[in-house]
Amino acid sequence: MIYTAVLCAIVVAFVWGIASRSAVRMDVIRDRGTLAREVEDGMIENVYTLQVMNVSEVSREAKISVSGIDGIRIAGDTKAEIEPNGNRSLSVRVRVPGDAVAKGSHRIYFELHTADNDVALHEKSTFLMQ
User: Fold this and answer.
1) How far apart, in whole angstroms, are the C-alpha atoms of residue 28 and residue 121?
2) How crowded is the C-beta side of 94, counted as CA atoms within 13 Å?
3) Do 107 and 124 touch, CB atoms closer than 8 A?
4) Which helix (H) or strand (E) covers residue 39, if one does?
5) How confident is the model at residue 63 (pLDDT cuts 50, 70, 90)?
6) pLDDT, tens only, 7-34
């Protein structure tokens, strides 16, 4: 009886894990080789690599945004097409007005939303001000 109960619990946990997994995953990596740099209009820029993985059988269009600091924005394209069962590495430049926050490290959040609103991801990272 005990072995049967343990086996049933393992099977239920396995099935629940597969059924509830997200179809898209995202990892955020800040470019450590490039520290914060000043660009035009007094903006401070950090560079990130977003590794987006599509584990579903259909192609997904994703829109990426960033939040956490007043005036923060992504410079460049914010949309990406991810092939079925594929990975996509995106280089993202994030800019903040130079007078928006004090020097140091600040928490920011990257959001990824699919075009069909099936998936919404929220990943944290840090923004360095010089």
Assistant:
1) 11
2) 33
3) yes
4) none
5) very high
6) 999 999 999 988 777 778 889 998 877 7
- Domain annotation covers residue 10: no
CATH number at residue 71: 2.60.40.10
In a domain, 121, yes or no: yes
Query: Residue 18 class from Cβ within 10 Å (0-12 exposed, 13-18 middle, 19+ buried)?
Result: exposed
Q: For residue 88, what are the domain limits?
A: 23-129
Number of compact structural domains in the chain: 1
Q: Would you call 128 helix, strand, or coil by DSSP?
A: strand
The pLDDT tens digits for 101-127 are: 888 889 999 999 888 777 788 899 999
Q: Does any domain span residue 8?
A: no
